[in-house]
Design goal:
alpha/beta, Rossmann fold, single chain, 14 helices, 18 strands, 8-stranded mixed sheet
Length: 391
C-alpha cells in the first residue's frame, strides 16, 4: 500500500514516529510525507524552518514548495507536488489540515486530474460546532463530498462532521502517539532530591500551559481543602496565569508546597511525570453553546494523560471534551470546575495507595494497547485497508 500524508505537523521529526511505524508494519507499505519547504512556527518571531528531504527506504519526507508559511488553512503546495504524485501514485492521500484546508482541496483536485484513484482522507482536531460563510462553506462542502474517510482526533469532532452532513467512514484516534521507550516507569531519585521531593510525599502533578481554560485555579482550590494531607504540587509549564497561581498559593499559605518548573524539552518531561503520584488535567470548556460560533475552547484530547499512563502514573481529569473518553475506567473523571469533586478524587488516591497503584496499572495497559505510535499505526492501517477494499 502506498500512503501519502501531507501536513506541516511533520516538520518536527519527533511527530513522524507513528508514520515511521506505519511504514514498518507490513512488507509493501510505503509512506511518503509531504511537508512545506518553508514554515514559520506560530508565535515565533523571525524564525523560518527550512525542511530537508529524507529517504529511509519505505519512509520518506519530501519538502514541497508552499504558499502561506504560517496559516494551516491557507497552506497550498507548488507544482513540484504534481511530479511527486505522478511518480509515487498513492492509494491513500491524507491531508491533516482540517475540513476546510485548501491543501486538501488541492490534493482532491490533483487526484482526479492525474487519474490516481486514491482514497481521499483528512484529519481534524476541531471539536466545536460552527457556522461558515461563503466561500468557505462551499470549500468545506466540496472537501466533505470528495472524502472517502476521515480521521477525527476526538468523539466530538466526529459528531460535528456528521452534523455537517458527512455520512462516510470516520475513525476516532489521536494524530500522535507516545514513545513507550521514553515515557516509561522510571524512578528519579536525583531529580526528586533536587526539587526537595521526599519519598513519602504525595505529588500532585500538572503539565501544560498556565492558562484559564486548563482549570489550574480549580486544582489549587481543591488542594486548599486538603491542607491536612501530605501533598506537594508540581507544576510543569508556563503561561499568563503564573503570577495569579503564585499569589493564590501565598494567600492560602501553601506556597512552600508548590514546585514550579518552567517548560523543559520533550525528552525531559517523562522524568518529571515519573515524580508524580498523580497527574491532573482539570481542563474547563470556555465555549458557549448557545452562540453557535466557533469562539471558545474545549479539550481536544489531552496528550499528557496518555504520557502519564505510560509511566504508570494514575490520572485524574475533568469531563471537558475528549478527556473522559481517553481516561475511560483507567483513571478518575470529575465534573469540570467542581473543586470538591476534584478534592474527593485526590483524597481517594492519597488515602488508598493500593487503589492508586491499580489505576496506574490499568492506565499503563490502556496506553500500551491503544496509544503507542505502533498501536496507532496499526489502527490507521486497518482504516486504510477498509477504505481501499471498499468496506
Amino acid at each position: 500500500m502506498k500512503v501519502l500524508v501531507a501536513s506541516h505537523t511533520y516538520i518536527v521529526d519527533l511527530n513522524c514516529e507513528k508514520l515511521r511505524a506505519l511504514s514498518k508494519l507490513e512488507p509493501g507499505i510505503e509512506v511518503t510525507v509531504v511537508v512545506p519547504k518553508r514554515w514559520k512556527p506560530g508565535g515565533v518571531q523571525n524564525r523560518i524552518i527550512e525542511t530537508e528531504y529524507r529517504d529511509e527506504g519505505a519512509f520518506k519526507i519530501v519538502p514541497i514548495a508552499n504558499f502561506s508559511q504560517n496559516h494551516q488553512g491557507l497552506l497550498t503546495f507548488g507544482t513540484d507536488l504534481i511530479s511527486l504524485l505522478r511518480e509515487f501514485r498513492p492509494q491513500i492521500i491524507q491531508v491533516e489540515q482540517g475540513s476546510r484546508g485548501l491543501a486538501y482541496t488541492q490534493m482532491i483536485a490533483l487526484n482526479q486530474l492525474l487519474g490516481l484513484k486514491a482514497k481521499n482522507v483528512f484529519f481534524t482536531w476541531w471539536n466545536l460546532p460552527y457556522k461558515l460563510k461563503l466561500p468557505v462553506a462551499l470549500l468545506e462542502k466540496y472537501n466533505l463530498n470528495h472524502s472517502h474517510g476521515i480521521i477525527s482526533g476526538n468523539q466530538d469532532g466526529a459528531e460535528i462532521l456528521r452534523q455537517r452532513g458527512y455520512q462516510g467512514p470516520i475513525k476516532v484516534m489521536p494524530q500522535l502517539g507516545i514513545d513507550e521507550k521514553l515515557f516509561t516507569p522510571q524512578k528519579q531519585p536525583e531529580l526528586a532530591a533536587k526539587l526537595g521531593i521526599k519519598q513519602d510525599d504525595f505529588v500532585v502533578g500538572f503539565v501544560g500551559r498556565f492558562v484559564q481554560e486548563k482549570g489550574l485555579l480549580t486544582l489549587l482550590q481543591a488542594l486548599v481543602s486538603l491542607k491536612d494531607q501530605p501533598w506537594k504540587l508540581l507544576l510543569l509549564g508556563r503561561g499568563e496565569l503564573q503570577a495569579e497561581l503564585i499569589k493564590f498559593a501565598i494567600e492560602n499559605s501553601f506556597q512552600e508546597r508548590v514546585i514550579l518548573v518552567e517548560s523543559v524539552s520533550h525528552h525531559e518531561v517523562a522524568n518529571y511525570i515519573n515524580l508524580m503520584s498523580t497527574l491532573v488535567l482539570p481542563s474547563e470548556t470556555t465555549y458557549k453553546f448557545k452562540t453557535l460560533t466557533s469562539v471558545g475552547w474545549k479539550e481536544q484530547f489531552g496528550h499528557v494523560i496518555i504520557e502519564a499512563m505510560a509511566c504508570k502514573v494514575p490520572v485524574i481529569g475533568s469531563d471537558s471534551g475528549e478527556i473522559p473518553h481517553v481516561i475511560g475506567d483507567a483513571g478518575l473523571v470529575f465534573p469540570e470546575g467542581d473543586r470538591q469533586a476534584l478534592a474527593n478524587c485526590l483524597t481517594q488516591l492519597i488515602e488508598k495507595p493500593d487503589f492508586a497503584q491499580s489505576l496506574g496499572e490499568m492506565g499503563y495497559q490502556k496506553a500500551m494497547i491503544k496509544y503507542t505510535n505502533k498501536a496507532l499505526a496499526k489502527q490507521q492501517l486497518e482504516f486504510y485497508q477498509e477504505l481501499v477494499n471498499g468496506h
